[in-house]
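Give me the fold.
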Amino acid sequence: MAANDLANHTTLGVGGPAANIVHAKTEAELISAVEAADESNTPVLILGGGSNVLISDNGFSGTVIKVETTGNSFEIDACSGGTLTVSAGADWDEFVAFTIEKGLANLESLSGIPGTVGGAPIQNIGAYGHEVSEVIARVRTFDRKQQEVKTFTASQCGFSYRNSIFKSEPERYVILDVTFQLRIGEASLPIGYAELAKELGVEIGARVAITKVRDAVLKLRGAKGMLLGQGIKSAGSFFMNPILDQSAADKLPSDAPRWPMDDGRIKTSAAWLMEHSGVSKGDQLAGAQISPKHVLALSNAGDATAKDLIDLARSAQEKVRAKFGIVLQTEVQLVGLSL
């Protein structure tokens, strides 16, 4: 595998060569690399941890900029809580562990998610009933269109389920750092997810020590093969949970999961839909495989190509569409590929 192969820089371990790779260790290097590429009209691919992306076997013909900036600043006040500003290239789970060590709550259910801090607001990452948008105070970016640094307050970020202004306008904003506002305390947010409540041995709505919640979340994610370093090469959940209007939700079988949203729509489970339309753990197509541990994780069984993974994803998507009339949307960013 050549040094410039993007398979080296993604958790799926697939992806062809990049014409150029820049490793940005500082904010100045990051902005300079983006400006240089834009001035020469060179396509840009911003990569963090490479954990939420599937890149074509043809690679990327422009400049790949690896965001490797690190560092943080934080203030903890007995009244206002903890305010932490963290560089985009910092490892997400290391940051979560750091907050818990400092006695700061509200990120415990987002433990174990692979990737970087800069990637978190783009996707508005979430797990076990909570989303990162709940604790973001502001996001500082480089605006490629205006060629200036621009800061967004949380309300300006356009956060919704697995979405944000940064995802909606992917060619415009490069995230530099993220500021979080966290609560001081040893007790978690109310447990709102039945699976997590069961693992903790508590009722829905209970509060538990943040350290216990982190341990439980890591155990659950590990059982699903959703932690890095477990020998399963995946990008985490490949598809998003569909959000349906009431009439579409009413057509689902009575035992299908339903989670009411604030806007009156209903979220259901992509994994449930897949499993009830003939997609099974361990299903394999060439080198691509439905993870043996979790149906939502499409994985590289050893020698997968991007085409193998797209073919497998398309097969799963078609089975769900044929059975339920619902078209699953990818959570993973596709580069040079489409379903």
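Residues 306-324 form the longest helix (19 residues).
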